[in-house]
């Protein structure tokens, strides 16, 4: 790169030269526009965040039934907006490390049963009140109450007592859990004044943006909170706005027309088209989310492990990854964990094997058809994927009958009710969380009806184990068990595919969730 | 002349209210025969027999159906539509804004579509069977034949993406300046106009042509009036009843049938609101919206009837 170009890009980054002038001069120096643009964005990143402007996201996953109560957040829009106005106790960094936020320090007793959170000084709520240990304790109490409707209740149930004293919150667990800090990064656990016990949907948090607009299903907006405790790291735009755009085509055209700066859930089949648009950047990255077919291990004919194995061998994962995800994903191996988890270990990849499938199918003694229920809401392309499955299974002599269910009511009537159906999981931040949510005998969402006391014991033992090597081995054994005996057929892990428009800077890929784990609006900025 | 009109209007109004009552019974009964009840829908998977019993008691679901019906009806009459069970918000408050948005969009679409359709219809009749007539009819039929989402996406492609004249998403909000609001609704209003235009235009044309065959039109032509004068002074006033009918039908469509357009343009109106709550099985909201839609249909039909009566002396003086 010539010194002149470098100098010029610095001048743009510091606001002394307009972008258009820069591109003109770069062209005069014989540089392509693409290269000039990349030069600009790296200069902008080096120059640091730019304050000001209004950052807008057009997102799928908002409904007029949404509420500001963090306990009830379920879909993408409340999740992403929650990260704008709420502050967490701890958070996962993009590298998968724990990052202390309202908790300044977290320590545990040797047996991982008693945990102490030291609360940071000088963090302020939007109503001017300082965040205290009592607020944090009350938040945790609310989400761990048996009667709570909180989406975090599943993990929080394990807390026996919560005590606030001075600057500390002390948690005593019913059973040891080495992963507790990871559980506290759950996006429902936004710290609220008095834990939100008085008015859970008041929308008062300690995050970088103060809520100015809240129209569920339409749009949500916030303005920068002047007293945010980490103003140098987050809250660069003056305003943020989330516009609910559930229609995929409308979302793309809004980005193209410049009405929003970022969108989520770009469909794999149009990624290549969008890549060609000037100014638009596709932000795709691997995560723990996966697309699955689930069989109930306690319902005939799926209570027979040979039949389950036959179906697992009769699915052509490579073809599915190629045709449904267009390569924007990775192969699954019939257990819900991949490399985005900290303690992941490789297990031999299961392959499409019609002969072996035929063998197991014969051995199961089942003949006739197997009924698979599917719907496009199960995951994008689920109906097509089910048809591919039907064809690859037919080559192994297994007849799969497809029943296309209406999307409306699929999650109430079909998923977790019918013995064989298509579905998806967003993944969790630790293996313990994933297994506790869906594979423990007592789990509410045990959608494969995998009820094995020996497996439960392994989960509890791994939870209490602090030695990382031993723990890795334990998770490996659990994975093998789910893979070979469970009711999960997991052909592929999907990537998150977001897209940003021109001028958006500061993007960091984060494997935990879409939109930089929800922080895209809070952490990105608009180049001058 | 006034007394028979007043009587007729009063009759129609009474009939309309009776009809609305009948619809309210149907809506209420319909939601009663759905499997499960509101309490079960609220508690969902986590329902236990005790919590179900408690919630039923709390919501008054243990009373007989007719008592609950009259309680609901009483609420509706006094403007209390209850609270949405999914979000706990007051339904009347959340519907107010949505209904206003829907009416705003429908109003501007109608302001463009109705006169345009009638004028085009008149022109088509004037040059009937000539190329002007065929061009107008052809274009109008083409725009109606395309599904709404296609028209919407074509408009978005050209006006929002390619030339960036109008915004492709139409999120409007309270306190939005009028000019911006108008700009925001430009594309959905255009899409709606194209969708309803042909129906009204074709009906105008057919109704006037029908009248054109009467003896008095022939007389008018024979006494040497110009073609437009014949249409304007003799044919159009006599064709007004069927035209008003089709206009009202299309107005009703602009209010209750615009779900697809609202989704494409992300317009926060009633259709989007209804769809969200149907998927959540939020019965009180569905009931409320259903009743409002029924009221819109019934009142527009009453207006059409009354207009027809006023326009036609024969209906004013029944034998």
TrEMBL record, chain A:
<protein>
    <submittedName>
        <fullName>Twin-arginine translocation signal domain-containing protein</fullName>
    </submittedName>
</protein>
<dbReference type="InterPro" id="IPR030678">
    <property type="entry name" value="Peptide/Ni-bd"/>
</dbReference>
<dbReference type="InterPro" id="IPR006311">
    <property type="entry name" value="TAT_signal"/>
</dbReference>
<dbReference type="InterPro" id="IPR019546">
    <property type="entry name" value="TAT_signal_bac_arc"/>
</dbReference>
<comment type="similarity">
    <text>Belongs to the bacterial solute-binding protein 5 family.</text>
</comment>
<dbReference type="InterPro" id="IPR000914">
    <property type="entry name" value="SBP_5_dom"/>
</dbReference>
<feature type="domain" description="Solute-binding protein family 5">
    <location>
        <begin position="98"/>
        <end position="446"/>
    </location>
</feature>
<dbReference type="InterPro" id="IPR039424">
    <property type="entry name" value="SBP_5"/>
</dbReference>
<dbReference type="Pfam" id="PF00496">
    <property type="entry name" value="SBP_bac_5"/>
</dbReference>
UniProtKB/TrEMBL annotation, chain B:
<keyword id="KW-0812">Transmembrane</keyword>
<feature type="transmembrane region" description="Helical">
    <location>
        <begin position="288"/>
        <end position="311"/>
    </location>
</feature>
<keyword id="KW-0472">Membrane</keyword>
<feature type="transmembrane region" description="Helical">
    <location>
        <begin position="243"/>
        <end position="268"/>
    </location>
</feature>
<dbReference type="InterPro" id="IPR045621">
    <property type="entry name" value="BPD_transp_1_N"/>
</dbReference>
<dbReference type="Pfam" id="PF00528">
    <property type="entry name" value="BPD_transp_1"/>
</dbReference>
<keyword id="KW-1003">Cell membrane</keyword>
<keyword id="KW-0813">Transport</keyword>
<feature type="transmembrane region" description="Helical">
    <location>
        <begin position="139"/>
        <end position="161"/>
    </location>
</feature>
<dbReference type="Pfam" id="PF19300">
    <property type="entry name" value="BPD_transp_1_N"/>
</dbReference>
<feature type="transmembrane region" description="Helical">
    <location>
        <begin position="103"/>
        <end position="127"/>
    </location>
</feature>
<dbReference type="InterPro" id="IPR035906">
    <property type="entry name" value="MetI-like_sf"/>
</dbReference>
<feature type="domain" description="ABC transmembrane type-1">
    <location>
        <begin position="99"/>
        <end position="304"/>
    </location>
</feature>
<dbReference type="InterPro" id="IPR000515">
    <property type="entry name" value="MetI-like"/>
</dbReference>
<comment type="similarity">
    <text>Belongs to the binding-protein-dependent transport system permease family.</text>
</comment>
<feature type="transmembrane region" description="Helical">
    <location>
        <begin position="181"/>
        <end position="200"/>
    </location>
</feature>
<protein>
    <submittedName>
        <fullName>ABC transporter permease</fullName>
    </submittedName>
</protein>
<keyword id="KW-1133">Transmembrane helix</keyword>
